[in-house]
Amino acid sequence: MTSIYQLRIDLRDAKPPIWRRVLVKDTTTLGDLHEIIQTVMDWGGHHLHQFEISREYFGTPHPDDWQPMHDEEKYKLIDIISMENSTFSYLYDFGDSWEHKILVEKILPVDDKKNYPVCIKGKRACPPDDVGGIWGYYNFLDAINDPKHDSHDMYKNWLGYDFDPTEFDIKTINQRLEKYA
């Protein structure tokens, strides 16, 4: 029988906190979870990533990996995580090092009236991809919020749109998640 995992995904070191709460089937592969995280956090998805669960690494194996890497497409959540309050990590972009803590908050029965995956809550916009990690993000925020900052115009042009760090658009996120249902 399929269960639903309620996951809380927190971007580590983000102050104020940036997080998402999602419901996913326990049969979700780690490869699919990667895509779901990319969607709910609004990342670009074009960088390397890995999960670390119980000191084991899961991702897309490559012959040049310096550590053993399990193929994320072969592992479902139910195969490796079976208890509430379990935590694991997700690292996106090995250069910028966007570290995420993932907590299995609850294991729930399936609600036949809902489509999964679904984002049920979250706070704040995720930093733009390629902004230079969490510390680069803070510099970016300083620059875009101060028209006199030396990098203000450069960042505004680079980004190409107005950025509101407080924005969280759950409706758009869930529309994007529909392709995984």
Q: Explain this structure to me?
A:
The structure is a single chain. With 181 residues, this protein is an alpha+beta fold. The protein contains five helices and eight strands. The chain has a single domain (3-126, 165-180), classed as MM3350-like (Structural Genomics Hypothetical 15.5 Kd Protein In mrcA-pckA Intergenic Region, Chain A), CATH 3.10.290.30. 24% of the residues lie in helices and 28% in strands. The protein has an eight-stranded mixed β-sheet with strand order 5-4-3-6-7-1-2-8. Strand 3 (49-53) and strand 4 form a beta hairpin. Helix 3 (133-144) crosses helix 4.
The SSE string, one letter per element, is: EEHEEEHEEEHHH
Count helical runs: 5
> How many individual β-strands?
8
Overall pLDDT level:
94
For the termini, the CA-CA separation is 17 Å
- Kindly provide the name of the CATH class: Alpha Beta
Strand order within the widest beta sheet: 5-4-3-6-7-1-2-8
| Structural Rg | 17 Å
Q: Uncertain segments of ≥5 residues (pLDDT<50)?
A: none
CATH arch. level architecture: Roll
**What is the CATH H-level superfamily?**
MM3350-like
Percent in helix? 10-25%
**Domain tally:** 1
Task: Indicate the CATH topology.
Answer: Structural Genomics Hypothetical 15.5 Kd Protein In mrcA-pckA Intergenic Region, Chain A
What proportion of the residues form beta strands (DSSP E)? 25-35%
Largest sheet: 8 strands, mixed
Structural classification: alpha+beta
